[in-house]
Design a protein that fits this description.
Mean pLDDT: 81
Shape: elongated
Order of helices and strands: EEHHHH
Radius of gyration: 20 Å
Low-confidence stretches: none
Largest sheet: 2 strands, antiparallel
Helix content: 55-70%
Structural class: mainly alpha
Strand content: under 5%
């Protein structure tokens, strides 16, 4: 039976039926894995946002006088490969984020705390203190970016 309220205990089924914990050792290792994936999520989000900033800063300035009507195909190939790379990173990051969300939906208090603590530690290590956060916050008001 699936829990519909938060509960505390070592017996958890996480994501798939084969990932069940029955002992304190397996429960602790599951919490540690959730913690590491949450940190990895923040790391990947930092890499994606930095790559996006780098790829956007390499765009030529948009001056109507100096810019040609048709851009060179070499620039378009670089632009498209950068867009594909950012899109792939976004997809990987979204998948990790949804898996973390589904982990929390196991309604186990320990899993919830491990994921939230991992996200906080990952944000502190990889994303806080950089000036890029302010730029990204101004460019995109969406919370899911």
């Amino acid at each position: 039976m699936m829990h519909m309220t938060f509960y505390w205990g070592k017996k958890v089924t996480l994501l798939v039926d084969s990932w069940k914990t029955h002992s304190w050792t397996s429960y602790a290792s599951t919490l540690f894995i959730c913690f590491l994936f949450a940190i990895f999520y923040q790391y990947m989000e930092d890499r994606r946002s930095r790559f996006k900033i780098i790829s956007e800063s390499s765009k030529p300035s948009s001056s109507s006088i100096n810019s040609p009507l048709i851009t060179s195909s070499r620039f378009n190939l670089g632009k498209n490969s950068a867009r594909v790379s950012v899109s792939i990173l976004f997809g990987v990051n979204s998948a990790i984020g949804y898996l973390l969300m589904l982990s929390i939906m196991s309604f186990n208090g320990g899993v919830f705390i491990a994921v939230v603590f991992g996200l906080s530690v990952g944000y502190f290590v990889f994303r806080s203190g950089s000036d890029d956060d302010e730029v990204m916050a101004l460019e995109n008001p969406c919370a899911c970016s």
